[in-house]
Amino acid sequence: MITLNVNGKDYSVDATPDEPLLWVIREKLGLTGTKFGCGQSLCGVCTVLVDDEAVRSCVTDVGDVAGSKIVTIEGVPDDHPVKQAWVDDQVPQCGYCHPGQIIGAVSLLKENPKPTDADIDSAMDGIVCRCGTYARIRRAIHHASADGTAGGKS
Amino acid sequence: MKAIINLSRRDFIQKSTILTSGLLLGFYLPKKGLAISSATTFAPNAFLRIDRTGTVTFMLNKAEMGQGVYTSLPMIIAEELECNWQDIKVEHAPVDPAYDHTMYGPIMVTGGSTSVRSEWERLRKAGAAARMMLIGAAAKKWQAMPGECTASGGEVSHSKTGRKIAYGDLVEEAAAQEAPEDIVLKPSSEFKLIGKEMARLDVPEKVDGTALFGIDITLPGMFTAVVARPPVLGGKVKTFDDTAAKKIPGVHTVVAIDRGVAVVADGFWSASLGRDSLDIDWDNGILANLDSDKQAEEYAKMAEKPGLPAADRGDIETALQQAEKTLEAAYELPYLAHAPMEPLNCVADVRSDGCDLYTGSQFQTVDRNNAAAAAGLPPEQVKLHNTYLGGGFGRRAVIDSHHIVEATQISKAVGAPVKVIWTREDDIQGGYYRPRTYTKVIGGLDDDNNLIALKQVIVGQSIAKGTPFEEAMIHDGVDHTSVEGASDSVYAIPNFRVEYHMAPAGVPVLWWRAVGHTFNAYVKECFIDEMAKMAGKDPYQFRRTLLKNNPRELAVLDLAATKANWSSPSPKGQGRGIAFHTSFGSHVAMVAEISINQRARVKVEKVVCAIDCGQTVNPDTIVAQMESGIVFGLSAGFYQEITFRNGRVQQDNFDSYDLLRMSEMPKVEVHIVDSTEPPGGVGEPGVPPICPAVANAIMSITGRSLRHQPFRQEDIAA
Fold this sequence. Notes:
The complex is a heterodimer of chains A (154) and B (718). Chain A has two domains: 2-73, Ubiquitin-like (UB roll) (Roll); 81-152, [2Fe-2S]-binding domain (DNA polymerase, domain 1, Orthogonal Bundle), CATH 1.10.150.120.
């Protein structure tokens, strides 16, 4: 049994330590907001926060994050400036990558509340969107940044 | 997917018949079937249900894969119904003839950028008929004339007395009304919703993480399966040893199915480890020696021979002989995987009395019927529950429904619900690619440098050959999807011929967002710039001459050029390229501004896009689809190709099949032509013009053409 803290809640899950965090979150905790895209840390759609840092859950062994504070898309408050900006700017198309994009943006703004375009490029380059919503992601991050409260929230 | 098909629902595998081309088959508003009103619900037709609270449930018969139909289609019906927009609720429709495509024959399908243009008339009439019945019900209640009553904001009003009644309070009376024979539609000048920017109804759940895709569906007692498929497409299992796989904790069983060996487990990870532990001896089949370089040589040889005519105007051979100057070129474009972000998956629950399928499908009727055949059940006993699609691009309209059939066969074998999940490697290596093409082009100029002759010989595999769609889509040996965007060019070239060679079948091929327009627009628009260069003419002005007889097309070209300040010099160190293409009922022109750095890396700085898609429904969705098409096209142009060596696909994940990323996103400006013409498509038309616009911009700096995709460094470097 492995003890996990996800979105502020403690779970005890039956998993081997080398099982990817992604599949434990999706299948054993039933939190399906976090998505599977490549399994190789190449697309970023599985991104979650582990102790405030954006990590690719598809290549993170669950045993390595026991005792860490994990936040998934479901754990980002609905009134978070990033989620609000995503709705205001009508960012998603198919929507599949956006849990990862939103977590990436939350993490960026926590570290850097006023990112430049170059900061956004380097922070978000690892999270791909096949529908090509990048222009709107950039706009929404700037809007969330202008809100000024994103740094304090996760 | 332009062809019209008429597949008999029961035995669609066996036969198909051509109906008519490009015309709506007429208005079909079922009065019975799914439309069952009751004392608490008014269901005037299969698309609408209004309950006593006033909630209007819209049955969505199309797949929402990012293109926005979850919002644009209910907007059309709500416009005529005159309900409150916030009262609309959307549900995915089941498979039923009432929801069949109005252009493609009796199947439910989402493709060909047809959702708005094919449902435009049917949904408006469905909404208007319901509105007339609600007005009739109120008039009867008030003993007034229907002509004295109006509907707006979800209620009927009587002008003389000032009385008002909400739709929810008219449910029972409206259900007793006869459906009207003559349906009165609103003039476009009275539109309140259509043409207005409306927030997408699917966005909130796609932001909070609750949106359900096929991969998110879980049923009680469900297993997860991962399938080992042949390393060479078309191969078969000879023998396999599953001893080690069965010892992996969590693995339930291993079953052989038509397409490979399935490891069935408690979850994905166990199934995946189980698959890695299988020992399989494969028969590699006919593609065992497939090699992309050799295939390129074969295609080039085929292009030297006369092909089957797809278009013929004037006297091409004489014109080319008499031309003052001629230019010959060959263009090569690769196989491409769709790579939707959500890998393919399907949940199937096969029981003796029926089967439930949960998946994101662009091809509901076909998937339902193929699953029925695999389950050994009549189609009526198979229910397909559509979900959001994590991208489609054509990959979720698979003619043999392979992933649906896999799930069905495994569920039947194990007697429990099963979710099949493809990995990214399964996806990239799994075939069903955009066909690769080799196109030979010859153009001729007269002594005034006018383009008087153009001949194109296209070599490529047919998507329809050997499928139930063959009869509908292949005419006189020419697959329409292989020549679309070439044979239908409106450019005023007096001597014009397009020929087609159907390349040998083998690699499974499929419609990839914008289908034949992707490769044919690239060849057409790049070669036009090559001819303009030879003629010593400006490529924009050269196109203007070619569009002199087509004012609507010309206006789109002019709009893009004007907004991009074409006549002013490019910013220092930058080049501009222009391209125009018509596809799926819409005209799109793009101007790309690019720069090339000292290491010969191209950056697309800005794209100015103009589109005429007729009457707009949700304009922001059109902007989004243009942005999306540009990124989709650029990903292919810069990065993507599927190649074979010794029969094996050489790419396997996003490291070897990359796509455009945030730092490479150009600024995009979209200008939409104001129009009351019938709607055109928007999901695909943004793809074809972008790559030629970029290649032409590169040529404007380097002076060299780019006749190969993905773009090669040696074609860019000085």
